[in-house]
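Morning F.,

Quick status update on the modeling queue. The single chain you submitted on Monday has been processed. Sequence for confirmation:
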Amino acid sequence: MLQLQAEKSQVQRIAAVLFAVLSSRLELQLSDTGSVVAHILLVFTCSACRFIRSRAGRFALLPPVSAVGFSNTAFKRQRCLDGCCRHVTPGEIPSYDYLAHAVLGLGASHLSQHGNVDYTSQALQHRVTAMKLVNEQLDHPPTKPADQDALLAAVICLVTQSSLMPDSMIDYITTTRGGNLVASTIITDYEKSIFKYFTPMEHDRSLERLISEQPRNFEAIEGFLASARRLMPLCQKPTEISYCECMIRCIDNLRTSCLDAWREFVILFILPTTFNNQDFMEFVDYENHTGHLLIIHMFLLDYVLGNACLSKSDEPEYPGRKFVIINWMRDLARRLPSLYEEYTEWPLEYCSVLAERDARYLLSP
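Structure tokens below.
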């Protein structure tokens, strides 16, 4: 009995994590957020997850979000979730097992990073299952808007989870590439999608609303620029050259315009999704030290820009992603041959500063 209660408590906390992620980070409308959360939580199928449903067939409401330490924003949106869930039964919603596992994997990784618990094993189990099921869905692309949305939601959860796991830097880039495939080829009508605000035009509008010119840290800007330029002679392949050039344009733009810098960063972020399969595999190959140095610079650039472009009030409440990326950089520096030491000097110095600084960054996940 005690074990069952512990499982129920664990799942409730994971569900609350998902609620905070969807309501606070994806910027969906309140009604959409409640629908998505109810939609996802109602389809949990593993043994622990079944406790989140009531025996009467109605949705068992979550404990107050404030009880598990989430932001006021998420707490205010609890009413939307409650109102939606009271009128929905599990039988009315199709079962998306891949989404359920993706959600649980993300929740377990979040709790492992931000709590005094370790759900790493459970996170990996759910992640492996979710990725297997997502790949099966990609072989048979859904045609209904709700099914398409569920698939993209699962991929977003998988991408976000990658940023909370050790040794997942390349996994993050690879999963993002898969997400772009879903977003660009499977969701064909964004007007019918709950992700209708994810179009390039709407994204650009959100940038204009979010950007707040902050005092520049020119030491960080010049340090990053010098480090990126130092990488340029290492770049031999067209993909590496274009990636490094885009990164340099981005940090150069930051001197005068946060908006221009952020727009260039969006181009940089999605650039690997434009590579053909062979070029992409070469770019992320374990032995391609140049490619890995470029990628970790991109993650650090995210925080250089965030510090200059976002208000302090936009700092994430949970800094786990920042520390994961710092560890990615330190792990990369340890495994690179000694002749690459000069290319890791500034990134390592910046990581020491970043560890003590706030965790503002541009993109979510």
